[in-house]
Amino acid sequence: MRAARGGRREAFGDVLPHLSGRFSAVRQKLSLEAFGFSGFPGIDSPVVGPFNVFDSRVLLTEELDLKGLYKARAEGQRVEAARWTYQDTRELVVLVSGNLYLRTLAEQSRVEVARAEAETARALHQLALDRKSAGVVPGVDVLRAEVELRSREQRVIEADTVVPPLTLEQTMEMAFARRSDWKAAQARVRAAEASRRSALGEALPGLTLDADYGAIGQTYGGARNTFTLAGALRVPLFQGGLVAGKVLAADAALQSARAGVEDLRGRIDYDVRVAGLELKAAADRQAVAESARALAREQLRQAQDRFAAGVANNVDVVLAQEAVARAEEDWISTVYDFNLARATLGRAVGLAEEAFRQLVRGQ
């Protein structure tokens, strides 16, 4: 972006007036014969001087041509393209950061679930020990409960180690209105168009204005004010194909920029459609996982009640615990997939930062 801004300042420097100051002091002798002057009555020697010339003045130069104007416009559009490219890169960084954030949340949820399952297994193990001491259940039930407890404790250790509604048309409209890469591509097309006009402008006449104002004389105190105002019209007659070559190159750059816009249009359409479908699928999977988790928890509760009442052994409880563990893991994965799909859709429509802020706020 700094390079683009530097190019714009340089281009505008060619369009704006150039103002400078000059001070000179000269002492010299001149030979009139050297300039073809001789034989003046009353002048014996052709050498004049020595004499002094003091000159102090301000100079102004301005070139009026379309080439510089269109070049400045092209550089301005390149700055615009660089700004939107920077924003697009920023949104990509936000999406990657959001993905890492969601993965961290998912792993934290797995830790909490693993700890809860370990507490349940510990309670069931103690219940099996108490019932074995009372002679109600055989020792194999205690062994099963202990194996399940150690398994749940191992899951806690592993989990701790890991932790460090719009319509399609509205979504498309939002994407083309908000996506930074789309705006950058359009700015590059405008820059290419201005560059082509600048190349064509080199074949047009150009006007240069020169002006100065200052004081000149033999001594500084005796200097008199003088000024100069001049204009020059430059008309290109033959440039050896230079302008035609620049126009051809500018045409190629313009066609490339327009092709890039059309290619990006297709990719945006694809991104939005795929992101919308993935979000819907993730929402459906999350709803199914939520229902399965509730059913697994109810199954575990009923198995625990039957075991506590002595009408069943703890095999059903262990199986129910396994079902709950799988349901919890599926639910965590679907929540992660759903939130990531939301962030991906936000990126597809140019709202990655806003989508990430909503995820952090839990909306």
Provide the β-strand percentage band.
Answer: 15-25%
Mean pLDDT: 73
The CATH C-level name of the largest domain is Mainly Alpha
Spans of at least 5 consecutive residues whose pLDDT stays below 50 are 157-164
The succession of helices and strands, N to C, reads: HEEHHHHEEHHH
Cα end-to-end separation: 34 Å
CATH architecture tag of the largest domain: Up-down Bundle
Quickly count the helices. Answer: 8
Question: What shape does the CA trace take?
Answer: rod-shaped
Rg is: 41 Å
The CATH superfamily of the largest domain is known as Outer membrane efflux proteins (OEP)
| Total strand segments | 4
CATH topology of the largest domain: Outer membrane efflux proteins (OEP)
Strand order, main sheet: write it out. 1-2-3-4
Provide the helix percentage: 55-70%
Q: What's the story with the biggest beta sheet? A: 4 strands, antiparallel
- Our count of domains comes out at 2
What does this protein look like?
With 363 residues, this protein is an alpha+beta fold. The protein folds into two domains: 13-64 and 204-238, Outer membrane efflux proteins (OEP), CATH 2.20.200; 65-203 and 241-361, Outer membrane efflux proteins (OEP). 69% of the residues lie in helices and 15% in strands. The chain contains eight helices and four strands. The chain has helices at 2-15, 66-133, 139-162, 168-178, 180-201, 242-309, 315-348, 352-361, and strands at 18-31, 47-64, 206-217, 224-234. A four-stranded antiparallel sheet has the order 1-2-3-4, covered by helices on one side. Strand 3 (206-217) and strand 4 form a beta hairpin. Helix 2 packs antiparallel against helix 5 (180-201). The longest helix is centred in the N-terminal third of the chain and has 68 residues, at 66-133. The radius of gyration is 41 Å and the shape is rod-shaped. The two termini are 34 Å apart. The model is unreliable at 157-164 (pLDDT under 50).
